[in-house]
Amino acid sequence: MNTCSNAPPLCSLSNYLIQPRTALISTGGVRIYNWTKNNLQNSTDYLYFDNKSLSGKISSTKYTYNSGQMLQAAVMLYKLKLWNGIRDKIGYSLKT
Fold first, then answer.
1. Could you tell me which residues come within 8 angstroms of residue 35 by beta carbon, excluding any fewer than 6 positions away?
2. Taking the complete model, does pTM exceed 0.85, yes or no?
3. What number is the average pLDDT over the span 5-11?
4. For residue range 12-33, what is the model confidence (pLDDT) as tens digits?
5. Cα torsion through 2, 3, 5, 11, rounded to 10
6. What is the mean pLDDT of the chain?
7. How far apart (Å, rounded) are the C-alpha atoms in residues 87 and 19?
8. From CA 96, how far away is CA 82, in angstroms rounded?
9. 90 vs 35: CA distance, rounded Å
């Protein structure tokens, strides 16, 4: 799995879920975010390695866009959490 493959869909999914038409919490998105952070983030400089092979070997290559996308994904997931918290407090209901 690659950081550059995981982060962009997280941002798109989070952006979609923040819209008023849905109140879903993306547990799948949070799982992908946590997996990527736990498996591909360097614990020394907190940047993201590019990928982890099926055999478990982590590439030592780091690209700036990987870290940038994960930052964006974190912000979007945070906004989603805030939206759902606000929605719950004001009693926002959805028509299904």
1. 1, 6
2. no
3. 72
4. 776 666 655 444 445 667 778 8
5. 160
6. 75
7. 11
8. 22
9. 32
Q: Is 23 helix (H, G, I), strand (E, B) or coil?
A: coil
- The structure tokens listed for 52 are 């982890």
What backbone phi and psi angles, to 5 degrees, belong to 2?
-110, 145
Rounded average pLDDT over 44-57: 94
* Helix, strand, coil % over all residues of the chain, rounded to 5: 60, 10, 30
Residue 69's CB is within 10 A of a number of other CB atoms, namely 22
Residue 90 corresponds to which tokens in the numbers above? Answer: 């004001």
Alpha-carbon gap, residue 56 to 62, rounded angstroms = 17
- Measured CA angle at 71 (ends 1, 28), to 5 deg: 50
Phi-psi region of 49 (alpha: psi -120 to 50; beta: other; left: phi over 0): beta
